[in-house]
Every structure is written in structure tokens, then in C-alpha cells.
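thought: fold this chain, then report.
action: predict
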Amino acid sequence: MERKLPSTIAFDDVLPLSVPAQARRRKFYPVNGGSFTSSGNSEIRIPISSTNALLDCEHSYLDFTITNNNDGAGARTLSLDTGGAAMLFSRVRIEQSGRILSDTQEYNRLLASVINPVSETRGGRLAGTIKDQTMAGNISGVPNTTPFAVAARRGHRLALSSQGGGTQLGAGASCRFSMPLITGLFTQDKLLPLPLVDKTNPITIVLNIDLDENLGLWAGGAPAAGGIAINQISYNAQLVEVGPDVISQFAMMRDMMGGQLAISGHDWEHNSAFLPGGAPGGGGERIVNIPIRKRSIKSLFWVANSDDMANTGLAGIYEIYNKSFGGSCNMNSYQIKVGSVTYPPTPIQGPGASAGAPSQTRRGECLQELTKAMGTLSFAAPSGACLNTLTYIADESSNVGPTTASGDNGVGGAPLAATSLTPNYCSAFALDLEAFQHTAVESGVDTETMALQTNLIIDVDGTIGAEDKTIHSWSCYDKHYYFNSDGSVTMSD
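observation:
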């Protein structure tokens, strides 16, 4: 058997030279205005093009300013929901020549309720307080809820520095944000060959602004229409300039591949379904249809959001963090059924409705499946710095556990209380559906070829809680993008 030198002492392993290239940062601006609000010019369109450069999406980001122009009856102070800068955008699309290449709906809810709390580390969370104004959260693990209080209502302060040292965005105040785009074409690991795209029909970022009342918590009452304005927005692109010979090689590769240069990645599809709260139905199964037709579904994430936040002492939905909120629905177990096949064959154990310590010990399998679907299970801190016994499927009325069995706030708990200070940070659930997890092959569940129906099956202990729920789900699936010889960009999934 031949013996080889390990890389640490293989001194002939010298890095090869790359093709001549130069990195440059360039700002791209909207073509449809300079100031945007939810009640006025609510769609932001930013075209991206270059004749000699590749786009490095992984190292590019949005940069913008928001101003609280709230001029309603009395000053209104905003505390952003836990998604930070992402809370501004309900929908993010990537288009080219009128074709939608990527479309992430409920973008802010996805970031606030699923991606941010699961994937971020302590260091990343603290960095977020600077670049996109996210709250650092109770990352020390100390059950101190005082820093999170806003006008004796549930919510975090807008953190501008570190844990407990934040402030709020008062009337007339402004704040600067920087944030990456986590959507479809812009999340794969290849540089985009912009010179192969028709210059008259560039790749375009389309951002839709959410209603002001959905951005977070408004102290003092409902915000005035158009109270939050987005200004000075740009896409700060990391471009890699290459010579004409490299661009010619791309064109040759495209021609050799039948006129299509292919890039593989993934994307998110959102679906929603209504589940009535209260006594009707009792315990047993709840069937949630997820009408998705894709060739390779990698994973499914879902969260149960209260529809009405019907709580004594709260004047309206504007006084609570609606996008990051999630309940347990008193769920004993869950699984997914595709056609006649269930995933997994044995249901995932949920927290149920039992009060006290027993149900607190039934959150582990849910969290493991959530981190597995996110691809972080093998990490030293698989659930990041944000999820712990105080924040994952935790009750609103207690730092340590449930008190009643409504299912509205994690494991049990009465309907949301106006005086509660404990943040119910995350009650997201998930299933990994890949045969070969997180590898460069299509191995997800196919619902397209045979037009199979997909259902989320929730076994409920009693009722789903007092309040009506909307089940928001996001399917993460494999997707392919094609840069064609006529300058168009298309996709298949």
C-alpha cells in the first residue's frame, strides 16, 4: 500500500494561479424611485448588469436607511421584530425579462421565525446588532427578561449595540441597515455570469415592503399609513471583473452544453393553511395540505401563527410581534405524508399539552429535526445561540415551563398576556426529506413526477389552542438556473 504525505507536510502542494481577475464593489440603485413606503411606492426594483464582471452573491448585500415618519395621533415608537432588517420585506423576487426566477413569499416571517433563530451563532447574533439591527437576544442563558420589555408588552427593543443596551426607533428617527439576500438564485455558490445576460433585460431584484403594523411592536397604538420610509437603498455588489477571453470560455461552455450554462441551487416555496382554534374537533389528527409540486424537496419548515392575537389588554395586532410568533398547537406528534408514504414512518414526538416538567422534556426530538433540516445537527452548537429552554417552544407566562393547555404560546400557556415580558422566541418545526443530506445531488422527495399530494399530519392533544392559527410552511427544494444563448435566464424545479 502506497504511503502519502499528509497535507501538513506536503510542501509541493502549491496553490495554482487563477485567471486574471479583479474584485470591485459596485452599488446598484432602484430604477423606480428613491423613497418607498408600504402605502405608496411599495415595490423596489434594482437591476443588476455588467459586460465584463461576475456577480458574487454570497459577498453582496442590501444597504438602506429607514425613517419613522409616523405622524398619527401621538408619537409611535417602533421596536423591530426579531428578523431585524429583513422585517421590512414581505416578498423577495429575482426576475429577468418578466420571468420570475426566484420568489420567496413571507420572506420576513421565514427569517424571523425559522432561519435566524436556528442558524445564527452568538458571534453572528452580536454582529447582527450592528449591521441589521437585530436584537442580540438572551444569549447568556440568564432568565432576565427586563431588557426585552417595551411598554409592558411583549417584545424586544431595537438593539443598536448589545444585549440589554438597545433603543427604539422613535418618531422622526432614522436607522441604517445592511443585510444579505437569502433567496433562490442569490444563495447558490457559483458566481453569476452577468456578461451572458441580455443587457436590455438585466437580472432584477424586486422587494415588496410589508405593512407597517407587521414590522414589529408599535408602542402607543397603531402606526399611521406609510409611517416607515425606506431611502438611500442600494445593492452593494461584489463583482469579479474578468477579461474577454474568460467570457468567451463561458460562452463556449454554454454552447457545448446545448446552449444552456446551468447553475444548481435551491429555493423556498411558501404555502399557508387555516386551522380553527377553540373547542371544536377535540383531539386527534389535523390534516394540513401543502400543494407543492417539485422534483426534489429537500426539507419542510413550518410555524403556527395566531390569526387574531385576541388578548385582553391588547388594543391591536400592532402591539405584538406577529411575524416571529409561533405556537405548538398542543401537538403530540407530526409527520408528512406524500402520496401513500409517510415521512418519517414513526411520527416526530411533539410537546403535547401537559403542564409542567413532563412536556418540557418532550421538545428534544422537535429541535433535533429542526437543526437536521437546517444542516446544523453535527455542529458543536446545532441550534445556534438563540434556542434554549427559555426560547424554544417556551411558554409566554413563565421562563421555565407551561402553565395551562391552550397551545397558543409554545407548550401550553394562556392566550398572550399584555403584561408578559418573556419572549417566545421560536416555535418552528421541520423535517429533512433528503436521502443524502446536504450533498451535491438531487435526493429529495419527488412530488412532481406522479403529481403526489403532500399533507402535514398533526396529532393534537385536545385542541390547537384558543386562537385560530395559520400554518405557514416553506418547502426548500432543489432548483436549476440556465443562462441561455439568447441572453435569457430560465429555471426548472
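thought: worth noting. Residues 316 and 422 are 19 Å apart (CA to CA).
final: C-alpha cells above.
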